[in-house]
Fold this protein.
Amino acid sequence: MKIRIKDIAKHLNISESTVSRALSNHPRISEKTRKTVYLAAKKLNYRPNLVAKSLKLQSTKTIGLVICDITNPFYPDIVKNIENYANKNGFNIILCNSDYEPEKELKYMNILIGKRVDGMIITPTGNVSLLSKILDQSNVPFVYIDIKPSLRRSVNCVYADQEYGAYIAVEHLIQQGHRKIALVNGPKNNSPCLQVYKGYQKGMRDHSLPIHDNLLKTCNLKSDGGYQATRALLDTPRNEKPTAILYVSDTTAMGGYEAIEEKGFHIPAEISVVGYDDIPESKHFFPPLTTVAQPKSELGEKGISLLMDTLNAKNTRKKKIIRLIPKLILRGSTSRLENNNR
């Protein structure tokens, strides 16, 4: 049997309005009455109707968080910081995992809109223009994280400059004497992957190095994708093999390590490797992985802070883009190539 406010009122022999006000901490209700009502509600196992309450307050105190891949070690720190910040501000998080599937992402977005979330934070997989249009039409404030916006319309966004991150990775490899530098990247329609390619391209061109198609591989953003792409890179004549590989993520680099070992090559003596993201596991690779560290905690904290500012602002038309700077973490997976003709 579902307990309602009128059942508590009947149990205490007081009015329903008094019970309602006590449960809402109304200032006109005495502390004694408030405690009596709370104890009765607990005894009767009363559960408030949050949907009805949200309709009255025009707020559900919930935020939708749509992440590309919750199994990717890059995302837990982001999620944790978003959740902690939201909880401190009286909000709860509904976490959804799109698994890099645009259809799934769109489905979850519509579910969250139906649940009347106050706002959303999204690491987009699908068409960003379409997502923005749907959210704007639904009057749901939102913030994108982990992408550089390329829309004509302004959006709230927090991103780490992945073009710059890839550039400094390529520059490091070139300074180590490498000329045949391969890129194992993710899908071409993925915004962060596009930025990584632009950084790789700029790094090569700034040093007058040619970009060979046989050194460019795309894959899914999981370990098996990195493994398959690396196998394809190494299944070529020796004079076409790369001496260094930049991976779009540490997760794909993990698969790359496996493929390199299987093919009988040694890291970094024969092939230098650079990852991207600086996931916790990267320092435990053998050898430890040189990688581009993204400011994961800042991505989460600044993303949720920006959304809260938007929810509290009277003028929500003003959008803000926050750029964060990644940095190169040098470990044991890169070394100097003495023979530049390789």
The radius of gyration is 26 Å. Residues 248 and 277 are 8 Å apart (CA to CA). The chain has three domains: 5-48, 57-161+295-325, 162-294. The longest helix spans residues 296-312.
